[in-house]
């Protein structure tokens, strides 16, 4: 286990401070199918340690803020928007959008950029995708840093969208379920999915904003109005909610227990797992379950932190881990 003393020792050093804002030195497009084309960004030092950032959601797209977790002098950071979201096209597309295809996209991007191996970073859904990718292509992964662990199980999905988090946030839950008729509230995922697939566009957008608002209110230890606003922007909300619901109603396109069973294939890859103690989106029991299946991993249950990597204890732990893995 990664002791908190290690975290505090590293987080007290200048290295652990978040890095200045930075723009990509290059952007590009990669066509991964007849339908989908990905937007990607190259950031930092082209001769530095390669690292790929896998964003959450699914369907959220990359946020420039997270460029600042990687030392720009030491890392060659690759960020890309997954199928259907961010600047990738077509926007809000559910067709040809599965975990297996996203894993193939990551590997295709690595090959396209001529990168032999890279560190893989993933937060929330990004941790799910990081595990699926590394277990499929362990030879391409040097280290892993993951936060807000989500294993893609039905139990975790039910916690957020049926029975669990509603007990902690009953006021926000009431808003979330208000657009669903009483007769359909015993299966909220199916009810939302029906709206996202069959309802008129204006009803889809209303549902998407309710879905995204519910999630945004649990991201940080304290509700952040700026995040509420960000998550309910029309373009973001519709892709985020529809793609997320698409994955969750399809068991994230994973077999039950797949990511824990697959740890054997990555057991020797150095890994740091970070989870907020008060994460109400991805409770720390799943990070702990992953760590117990992966004895060589190091884990930090960050105090006074929820789900977001921006909660300071999570942020310090992630910065410390990435600085520790960085090389000149």
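^ structure tokens above, recovered residues below v
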């Amino acid at each position: 286990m990664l002791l908190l003393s290690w975290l505090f020792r590293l987080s007290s050093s200048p290295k652990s401070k978040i890095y200045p804002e930075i723009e990509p030195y290059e952007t590009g497009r990669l066509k991964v199918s007849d339908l989908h084309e990905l937007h990607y960004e190259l950031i930092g030092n082209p001769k530095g340690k390669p690292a790929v950032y896998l964003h959450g959601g699914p369907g959220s797209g990359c946020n420039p803020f997270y460029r600042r977790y990687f030392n720009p002098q030491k890392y060659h950071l690759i960020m890309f928007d997954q199928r259907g979201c961010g600047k990738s096209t077509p926007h809000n597309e559910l067709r040809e959008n599965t975990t297996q295809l996203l894993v193939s996209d990551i590997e295709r991007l690595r090959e396209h950029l001529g990168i032999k191996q890279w560190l893989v970073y993933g937060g929330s859904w990004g941790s799910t995708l990081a595990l699926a990718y590394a277990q499929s292509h362990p030879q391409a992964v040097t280290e892993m840093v993951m936060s807000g662990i989500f294993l893609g199980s039905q139990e975790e999905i039910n916690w957020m969208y049926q029975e669990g988090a509603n007990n902690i946030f009953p006021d926000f839950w009431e808003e979330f379920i208000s657009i669903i008729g009483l007769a359909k509230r015993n299966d909220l995922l199916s009810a939302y999915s029906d709206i996202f697939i069959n309802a008129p566009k204006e009803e889809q957008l209303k549902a998407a904003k309710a879905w995204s608002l519910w999630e945004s209110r649990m991201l940080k230890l304290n509700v952040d109005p700026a995040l509420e606003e960000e998550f309910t922007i029309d373009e973001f909300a519709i892709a985020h909610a529809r793609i997320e619901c698409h994955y969750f109603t399809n068991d994230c396109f994973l077999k039950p227990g797949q990511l824990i069973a697959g740890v054997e294939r990555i057991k020797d890859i150095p890994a740091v797992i970070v989870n907020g103690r008060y994460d109400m989106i991805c409770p720390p029991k799943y990070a702990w379950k992953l760590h117990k299946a992966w004895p060589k991993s190091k884990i930090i249950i960050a105090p006074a932190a929820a789900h977001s990597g921006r909660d300071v204890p999570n942020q310090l732990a992630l910065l410390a881990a990435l600085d520790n893995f960085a090389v000149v």
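Residues 121 and 145 are 5 Å apart (CA to CA).
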